Amino acid sequence: MGRTLAMMKHFKWIAIITLGTGWAAFSEPILQLRVSTPLLLSGAAGLRMGPPDGQFHPALEVEAGIGGGRAAVGLDNHGSGSFGYGLKGALLRTWIEPLGVDEDQTFLGLEGELSIKQLLFHVGGYRRVSDGDDDWLASAGIAIRF
């Protein structure tokens, strides 16, 4: 659990530094409805900093679903045109009924995203950082971005 708290502190500092920059003035809200493993059905909200110019900009997201929750920070360029992609570091915690993994475990990993208009596809790989039986976790899903 100590490693999990240490990682959460890193996410907090990244968020504070990012929000303190000039990018926050050009922030764009992120709202998504997602279907994925292991979270099943979930909703995500966040903030993408920077103008919608097709360039990479910092993004922060939180997600809660039937199988767990996720906090992510990274870069994406989903704000312009009909095609985009992104890369994020994420902390994922399982609860209630996760798909293919035990509940009450914490994972840290990377996610890649690909978007076509408002449709978003994502895949990720995670390593367990808390007590539990599952050392590695693969995640994949689809989302609609509003």
Structure, explained:
The structure is a single chain. With 146 residues, the protein is mainly beta. It has a single domain (2-145), classed as Porin. The protein has one helix at 2-19, and strands spanning 28-37, 40-48, 57-65, 68-76, 83-94, 106-116, 119-128, 136-145. The chain has an 8-stranded antiparallel beta barrel with strand order 1-2-3-4-5-6-7-8. It is elongated and about 45 Å long. The model has no long low-confidence stretch (mean pLDDT 85).
Query: Which CATH architecture would you pick?
Result: Beta Barrel
* Mean pLDDT score: 85
Which shape, going by the Cα principal axes? elongated
Q: CATH class, please? A: Mainly Beta
Helix and strand composition category: mainly beta
Kindly, what is the distance between the CA atoms of the first and last residues, rounded to a whole number of angstroms? 35 Å
